[in-house]
Amino acid sequence: MALNFNLSSLTETSLLSDDPWWLYILGGAGWTIGLMLSAFALALLLGIIVGTLRTLDNKPLRILSEGWIELFRNIPLIVQIFIWFFVVPEFIPWYKEWMIENDPIWSQFFTAFICMGLFTSSRVAEQVRSGISSIPKGLPNAARALGMTRLQGYLYVVIPMAMRIIVPPLTSEAMNLVKNTAVALTIGLPELTMRANEMGENTFQFFAAYLWATIIYIVIALAVNTFMGFVEKRCAIPGFIASK
């Protein structure tokens, strides 16, 4: 069967809503962006904590943080999202009840948020550890000489500087997360890829649907890259990392 390249189908009224197909697919981009931003925020929070623990002298904490990284980094993302959606609720009765009683879309979103946040946190943690390791050893010592405790040295000197150093690799992680959100379609979240697929299945206009979805993904990726580039430029450390 020959492919139909009729792009005008995007302006036709969706069979699944009262909106045209282009707007229906664009609505899925809202879920994609929301999932990416919330999961990235969770990944940053956990990644900073776990990555910092890897640099401490406390061996049990180092082993715990290394186990966290290896666990979430080495299991395929699609397997993790299935575990969080189908397996974990069986061990947490109140969570399972919440999933049953509420709109499925929120349990799908929350599952994807937790899964992708934890998955990405393992990667961010490695970036944080690398950033802390790259800081000159004299800097923490100088903080101690000024009367700061080790905790204060980490909070006010080491971690802020490390985060400024790792902005470029964090940009890559943010870009990867935009693409990884498409995995959420496997548990039914109506994000961008799923809605494009729904248009294709209902109209057989797969070319138009996925072309429009591709354009939206490119716009989102460019927006993320531009914003992170701005952050990288503002956070560049004079004499240590050159700004672009």
TrEMBL record:
The keyword Transport applies. Gene3D superfamilies: MetI-like. Residues 29-228 form the ABC transmembrane type-1 domain. It is a multi-pass membrane protein. Pfam families: BPD_transp_1 (PF00528). Its main location: membrane. The keyword Magnesium does not apply. InterPro entries: AA_ABC_transptr_permease_3TM (IPR010065), ArtM/GltK/GlnP/TcyL/YhdX-like (IPR043429), MetI-like (IPR000515), MetI-like_sf (IPR035906). Keywords: Cell membrane, Membrane, Transmembrane, Transmembrane helix, Transport. It is found in: Cell inner membrane; Cell membrane. The chain crosses the membrane at residues 21-50, 71-93, 105-125, 153-171, 204-224. SUPFAM superfamilies: MetI-like (SSF161098). Belongs to the binding-protein-dependent transport system permease family. HisMQ subfamily. This is Amino acid ABC transporter permease. It comes from Sutterella massiliensis.
